[in-house]
């Protein structure tokens, strides 16, 4: 991931630290681990760029780095917003790494699912303004990342799609994926889309309200910066309290049922029938390629 931003040098172990200009003013930070880059310039707006080829799958390692990066930004008082995007052409994120859910131990599934929960709790509950610049396809967990942001701008290419397609894999979107979806598009659209496991091409996603606007791909980052400026023009405390008011019930529900949710996931994913569905899906992806 690639993360960039300005402000106090609070992170960057093993990476390049935030620099100090000769006058003692902070310059910019090029920090983050190997799977994303993060930069935080003077504006106080970080840009986080996923860079985990081939398709930015959310592996355990990726999710861990994502959560740590979010925590570092959250704790950096100079950082008020983050734009999340991808360095890969045509792909924002392919969602959860299916190989993490296939043929592994119960302990592994437990650790993996806790990392998925942690990422969502941090992103959906963030005090920062979060804008997703969706510059490619974004199925399932990728859609969850985008939906967890405050605002979604998508490249207007109809070949790019977004949605919670779990049902197509023979799995079920967990209740907090569903809650996040309902909060974005409303109950009826969420129900139909979830039951059908629909992946919506960008223009349809816009019509449904799953993304807030479409722009030509080359204008995506410029527009994300403009939206961010608009959201940051308000006092942080008022915006943050409002965000909390809107999201708290859904966040609290997972916090209250976290261990039960992990147990459900582990039991579900360990079933031979589910393992078979996931294996078949992976084979289908490989065949489609050849
Ligand atoms: C009742 C109780 C319920 C409790 C809860 C229980 C369960 C919930 C469980 C799970 C929830 C999961 C949510 C998810 O996120 S599942 C993941 C869903 N993702 C997808 O369906 C996307 C699949 N991928 C694609 O459609 C395409 O790859 C994509 C459009 C993203 C890109 O297409 P492109 O043609 O560019 O690239 P490919 O050739 O298809 O892929 C390259 C390479 O990458 C592999 N791959 C793709 N996606 C994934 C993935 N998500 N995980 C792992 N690997 C992936 C693909 O197989 C290729 O590999 P290789 O052939 O090069 O080896």
UniProtKB/TrEMBL annotation:
One of its GO terms (biological process) is fatty acid beta-oxidation. The keyword Lipid metabolism applies. Its EC number is 5.3.3.8. The keyword Metal-binding does not apply. Its main location: mitochondrion. Pathway: Lipid metabolism; fatty acid beta-oxidation. CDD domains: crotonase-like (cd06558). Homotrimer. This is Enoyl-CoA delta isomerase 1, mitochondrial. It comes from Zonotrichia albicollis. The lineage of its organism: Eukaryota, Metazoa, Chordata, Craniata, Vertebrata.
């Amino acid at each position: 991931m690639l993360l960039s931003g300005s402000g106090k040098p609070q992170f960057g172990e093993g990476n390049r630290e935030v620099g100090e200009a000769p006058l003692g003013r902070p310059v910019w930070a090029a920090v983050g681990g190997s799977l994303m880059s993060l930069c935080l310039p003077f504006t106080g707006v970080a840009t986080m760029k996923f860079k985990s080829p081939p398709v930015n799958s959310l592996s355990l390692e990726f999710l861990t780095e994502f959560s740590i990066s979010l925590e570092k930004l959250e704790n950096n008082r100079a950082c008020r917003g983050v734009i999340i995007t991808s360095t890969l052409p045509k792909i924002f994120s392919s969602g959860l790494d299916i190989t993490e859910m296939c043929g592994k131990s119960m302990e592994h599934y437990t650790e993996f699912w806790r990392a998925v929960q942690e990422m969502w709790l941090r992103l959906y509950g963030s005090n920062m303004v979060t804008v997703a610049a969706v510059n490619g396809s974004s199925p399932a967990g990728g859609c969850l990342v985008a939906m967890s942001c405050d605002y979604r701008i998508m490249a207007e290419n109809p070949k790019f799609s977004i949605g919670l397609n779990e049902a197509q894999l023979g799995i079920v979107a967990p209740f907090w994926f569903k809650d996040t979806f309902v909060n974005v598009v409303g109950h009826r659209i969420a129900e139909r889309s979830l039951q059908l496991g629909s992946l919506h091409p960008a223009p349809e996603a816009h019509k449904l309200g799953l993304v807030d606007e479409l722009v030509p791909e080359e204008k995506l980052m410029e527009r994300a910066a403009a939206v961010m400026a608009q959201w940051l023009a308000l006092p942080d405390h008022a915006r943050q309290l409002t965000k909390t008011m809107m999201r708290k019930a859904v966040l609290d529900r997972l916090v209250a049922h976290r261990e039960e949710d992990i147990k459900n996931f582990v039991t579900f994913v360990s079933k031979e029938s589910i393992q078979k569905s996931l294996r078949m899906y992976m084979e289908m992806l490989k065949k489609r390629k050849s």
